[in-house]
Amino acid sequence: MNPILSALMRNKTGAVLVAIQVAISMAILANALHIVNLRQAVMARPSGIADESSVFYVSTRYLTRETAEYDRALQLRETARLRAIPGVASVATTNQMPLSNQARRSSVSVDRKQLNESAGAWIYQTGDSLVATWQLKLVAGRDFKPDDVLELDSQASHNGTPKTVIVTSALAAKLWPGPGSAVGKTLFFGVGDDAEESEVIGVVERLQSPGAQIDEQGDFSLIQPFRGVGGIPGATYTVRTAPGERDRVMKEAEAALHKDATAPVILSAKTTESDRKQRYRADMALSWTLIAVSALLLVITASGIVGMASLWVTQRRKQIGVRRALGARRTDILRYFITENIMITAAGVASGAVLAIGLNQLLVTKLEMAKLPLGYLLAGTGVFFALGVIAVYGPAWRAASISPALATRSA
Description:
By secondary structure, the chain is an alpha+beta fold.
């Protein structure tokens, strides 16, 4: 060990540069992979919809204005037409979809005497059953019955509020913390004397907001049994298909609605999966960018180790030849260079761990990120030690292959 240290002290600049390179690379790599893992966890969050690959939605907007009766009959006819397509398991009207970046939100409270809202809730409205169509997990209470559905003309000056509502577990816990079920509780839309009340009849485990916020408010959702009619005819229908049938059914649904249209119509169909990809497009781009940067850092670090080791082999050819002439085996020379690199890498890894923690603390303070788990530092340590051994092996093997005859040559 002492001869190796002595040799390193005579070539301090190269050793220090490699150690600094390892330290910087490890600090960036550990935090980059931590960020990627956090982004991946966010992108994989369940929306509440079971089997998103079997769900799509189609919207119709007719270029005319009609009565409420006409619009109601139109919605019922289109719903029946969609349900008649082979492979369709369930259909429901909805005003918005999870992850779609549409937005319908309202202030909710638990008492009319409140001066401020208890929470802001994202409102899903349906004239059918989103619980059945999306297969939401009902953890308490019941689903809507046909008698619960409030049907009102959208052109009316005041539409009123359905008397029943289904909330998510997250919203229920926010409004009524502590033990006990939210079923049977009264929820108010808005605050003050004008706030309209609804009775909670059911609680679903999860239903993300259209924006899929990453904080707790991303699950502050509720469902109202409401069908709006009148004005510009049309609606949004969400469809669940049999597994593997979605793409075919979606094409047939568009064709069927176009065929049955009695007036010019604007029709669009999208899948929940496409909304998820669109919603997390920036997160995915960030993840791939950080992965590319991490891979590039590993390549640069390995190149630095190879280059420095090759230089040292060239500078020590006569020294290596003398050692071989004095009886050193190839494995002894190989072990020497690998041990030397491990010592340099150890110094870089130790410094990198401290630097990684400091960088993470800065991210925690400025961007409210989670603290860096110890596992990333341990993994980084293993990666850089392995990288160092692999990178130095080629130059070390060339050094071990130097002939003892070099010892007799002049400098």
